[in-house]
Amino acid sequence: QVRLVESGGGLVQSGGSLTLSCAASGFSFSTYATAWYRQVPGKERELVAVVISAGESTRYGDSVKGRFTISRDSAKNMVYLQMNSLKPEDTAVYYCNADGPYYDPRLYWGQGTQVTVSS
């Protein structure tokens, strides 16, 4: 059974930090690109950061560059999102995502974790 389970969300003051974690199981984690997305009510889901399996290259959304860091531990099947200098506009539900390679094109989502940044 495929599972992506996020944790670490919560309430934090503006300027604070949080680290989100995503525990993956049930698929070949090392061959999948993994990412964090976020969504607020009434808006489309937005890419926050992605780490590509091969070479571990990373890419970030413009709004979080320089403040957020994505990382993964393939030995533990974990993905992390370190969020610093948080702003009220970072408030959203954050989702973990796993995107399979071309020969296994599957897409998995976690259930989401709420991050609320107070001003």
Walk me through the structure.
- It contains no helices and 11 strands.
- A hairpin with a 6-residue loop joins strand 4 and strand 5.
- The mean pLDDT is 95.
- With 119 residues, it is mostly beta strands.
- Helices cover 0% and strands 52% of the residues.
- The N and C termini lie far apart (40 Å).
- The chain has strands spanning 3-7, 10-13, 18-25, 33-39, 46-51, 58-60, 68-73, 78-83, 92-99, 107-109, 113-118.
- The strands form 2 sheets. Strands 2, 4, 5, 6, 9, 10 and 11 form a 7-stranded mixed sheet that branches.
List strands and helices in order, with pairings.
Layout: E1 3-7, E2 10-13, E3 18-25, E4 33-39, E5 46-51, E6 58-60, E7 68-73, E8 78-83, E9 92-99, E10 107-109, E11 113-118
Parallel strand pairs: 2-11
Antiparallel strand pairs: 1-3, 3-8, 4-5, 4-9, 5-6, 7-8, 9-10, 9-11
Offer a few descriptive terms.
119 residues; mainly beta; seven-stranded mixed beta sheet; 11 strands; 0% helix; 52% strand
Number of strands: 11
Give the number of helices: 0
Average residue-wise pLDDT: 95
Query: How much beta, percentage-wise?
Result: over 45%
Provide a concise account of the structure shown.
By secondary structure, the chain is an all-beta fold.
